[in-house]
Amino acid sequence: MAKIFDFKAVFEQIPELLKYLPVTLELAVISMLISIVLGLLLAVIKMKKIPVLRQIAGVYVSLIRGTPIIVQLYIAYFGIPMFIKYLCLRNGTVYQPSDASGMVYAIIALSMNESAYLAENFRGALGSVGTGQIEAASALGMTYFQALRRIILPETLTVALPGIGNSFIGLIKGTSLAFTCAVVEMTAQGKIIGGRTYRYFEIYISLALIYWVVTIIVEQLIKLVERKTRIPEHVELVKQKDAAEE
Fold first, then answer.
1. Is residue 14 part of a domain?
2. What are the Cα distances from residue 93, in Å, to 76, 78, 86, 105?
3. Which of 8, 156, 187, 213 is geometrically suited to a Cys-Cys bond with 176, CB 3.0 to 4.6 A?
4. What is the pLDDT of residue 63?
């Protein structure tokens, strides 16, 4: 009689699943870097109230936040090749999809999704930068973009760091949907193993343990970065907060 639950199988499959952890982390890191750039750009556009671009940014954020990530992944995976094929036909060239296309489409979808959420986070962080510092920079002869690079962005990223960390953790877990773009990461490999062994429950427990450990490690790294970059006058306040959490 077969076992209802094989406890041993949970740990036996972890090494095979870990072989695909680099793919998961690659998806998460690249998507996060792109989404930070896009999110900052959207936040600056909305803060500066740039005509036309502000309305476009508003529609973009609303559309991305108002649709499920899995739908966005499917649209990227099927829609982008259709658009590229259309352009190739207009130019009289032959469309040849590459093996890496699925990875690229997944990164595009994940980056766009995360940027819409980070835009609001950055908008709040930008608002926390004192106007006195911006006025002082202007008095020293700095242009807005010089002040943005030297003063506003460093302080904004420091303030937004906890939100960025939470977004990155969510993005790591969100990569589990990349199988919709034919990307074989940990969750996709888990499905493949489950189809071979018929031990789906054990596989998903293994995946849960791996994601949990990765999340704990990322949380600790984010706390370390926060301690290194925090504003001096906030050190004591943060120490009190950390002590209360412990």
1. no
2. 22, 20, 10, 21
3. 187
4. 93
Q: Is residue 9 part of a domain?
A: no
Total number of domains in the chain: 1
Non-local (6+) Cβ contacts of 14 within 8 A are: 206, 209, 210
Query: Got the DSSP string for 50-109?
Result: -TTHHHHHHHHHHHHHTS-HHHHHHHHHHHHHHHHHHHHHHHT------TTHHHHHHHHH
Q: Does 149 fall in a domain?
A: yes
Domain holding 207: CATH number?
Answer: 1.10.3720.10
The pTM is what?
0.82
Domain membership flag for residue 92: yes
Provide the domain limits for residue 56: 21-234
CB 95 within 8 A of CB 85: yes
Q: What share of the chain is helix, strand, coil (3-state, %, to 5)?
A: 85, 0, 15
Three-state DSSP class for 136?
helix
The per-residue pLDDT of the chain, averaged, comes to 83
Nearest Cα to Cα of residue 75 among 105, 101, 116: 105
Question: pLDDT, tens digit, for every residue of 119-155?
Answer: 988 888 877 776 666 667 677 777 767 777 777 777 7
HSE, side-chain direction, 13 A CA sphere, residue 151: 18
